[in-house]
Specification:
With 340 residues, the chain is of the alpha/beta class. Helix content is 30%, strand content 19%. The strands form 2 sheets. It has a 6-stranded mixed β-sheet, covered by helices on one side. Strands 4-3-2-5-6-7 form a 6-stranded parallel β-sheet, sandwiched between helices.
């Protein structure tokens, strides 16, 4: 983390071979050449201490507040009813009926009802301010993750957040800085690193069965056609319409980073990515939502995105993203080493 990171991101580049024997490039040729994007670590606040190996005082009971009870939140509430040493203290969602549905999960588990927060876009802040909460669990839309994480940590709370935890480098560094300032746990809830296959493969790698791991691959291949209308305010569709690239990378990248010891001895230095043209999402908008063709094809994100990354120690990573093609769900996890 102390070294300068040079992240050469040739995002969605078309590599052009220009057969010119001599002479300067024409103006149009200059425009077609993609330049690397160099990203430096910003100036860090003085006296910061990283939290990678943070140990905090033991809590006999971890008291939890949940923000976001739409698609992912209720499942998290359900799981916490089975975890010894935890107490669900507060539930928050913009919609009161969603809070009530999660209260019924507590009823069915024979647990006391939690405090309720709803009806306001800022109701979650009141939950974060409670003195009887140790951990804030965030399961809202992506756009609010970083803001909520930072605010909760400012209140001295540990944070667990659904993926992706932040949407740009500025948000990422603000989250890191606050966690280091407050010395609290800040966890991105990348569940795929705990899947049986990924954990088994990690164990094999750590025991040397693959030799030195040189290359790993991962992906998020998941046709979301049956889910698009389930996202509050259509936020996920709109994000894919406005942004280009692998916008949901961590299901594939998390296990890969784990097996390659990223931030535990290695780091990612360079990446190059490209994508296909969008087809299925525009056609979905035409067929299912009655959008005119010209408007429907105003989609920034490609149908399939491929990203290749090289690390400081000369390892490589390939990540793929596709939420539109009619194909089976897959994370395409692969590990390749000097022994297999």
């Amino acid at each position: 983390m102390q070294k300068r990171i040079i992240l050469a991101a040739f995002l969605w580049a078309i590599i052009l071979f220009v057969g010119c024997a001599s002479g300067s490039k024409a103006p149009q040729e200059e425009k077609d050449i993609f330049q690397p994007i160099l990203t430096d670590i910003p100036e860090r606040p003085a006296g910061q201490k990283d939290v990678l190996g943070l140990v905090t005082p033991k809590l006999d009971t971890v008291r939890v507040g949940f923000i976001g009870l739409g698609m992912r939140g209720p499942g998290a509430v359900q799981r916490f009813t089975h975890i010894p040493g935890t107490k669900i203290v507060a539930l928050c969602d913009l919609h009161a009926d969603r809070v009530e549905k999660s209260q019924q999960i507590l009823d069915n588990a024979g647990l006391p009802r939690a405090a309720e927060y709803s009806g306001s876009v800022d109701a979650w802040k009141q939950l974060c301010k409670r003195d009887d909460i140790n951990l804030v669990y965030i399961a809202t839309d992506w756009k609010h993750h970083a803001e909520m994480m930072i605010y909760a940590m400012e209140q001295g709370k540990h944070v667990a957040c659904e993926v992706p935890a932040a949407m740009n480098l500025d948000e990422i560094w603000r989250v890191i800085n606050m966690a280091e300032k407050m010395q609290v746990h800040c966890m991105q809830l990348e569940n795929c690193v705990y899947d049986f296959f990924e954990l088994t493969t990690l164990n094999m790698a750590q025991h040397g069965l693959f030799g030195e791991v040189l290359h790993a691959e991962g992906a998020y291949i998941h046709n979301l056609a049956e889910y698009w209308d389930m996202y509050e305010g259509d936020w996920r569709m709109e994000y894919n319409r406005k942004h280009r690239g692998d916008v949901y990378a961590t299901h594939g990248l998390g296990p890969v980073c784990q097996v390659l010891d990223i931030h535990r001895g290695d780091k990612m230095n360079y990446l190059v990515a490209m994508d296909t043209k969008p087809v299925n999402i525009p056609e979905y908008l035409i067929e299912k939502r009655g959008m005119d063709r010209d408007s429907a094809y105003q989609v920034a994100n490609g149908q399939h995105t491929m990203t290749i990354i090289r690390t400081e120690k000369g390892k490589t990573i390939q990540i793929q993203h596709d939420v539109a093609s009619p194909r089976p769900y897959s994370r395409m996890y692969q590990v390749s080493g000097t022994k297999g």
